[in-house]
Amino acid sequence: MPLLNYTTKVPVEKSVQDITKSLVKAGASSIMQDYDETGQVVAVSFRIMLEGNPINFRLPADWRSTQQVLKNDRVRYEEPHARRVAWRITKDWVEAQMALLATKSVVLPQLFLPYAVDDRGVTLFEKIAADPKMLLGDGR
Asked: pTM for this structure?
């Protein structure tokens, strides 16, 4: 089965705009875009309040891994297209999270917790991946 959105023609900027609108509507603040050295958007960073405390998040779209999947699927895989596909998939994921939020079965920070970043820009997921005992303790 081909990768989701593999035929998209939607510009990266539109997908990022859609993500931003969803996050703002859900209560996120201080939203900004992170760029690479070529001026391409690589992540959306934003802040969510949790019980009066700000938590910063960084939501990336890894176009290189998307490009590899497209290449393996033997479909169009040039860099600009891979970027469009990666951001469209990310937009769809954010919209799915917003649907969960609408059910009131979760809170906004809970949905994005793996993407929470510390003062050095390291995500919670990266910390746990580097030291699984941080999450699980000593196993007792």
From this structure: 0.91
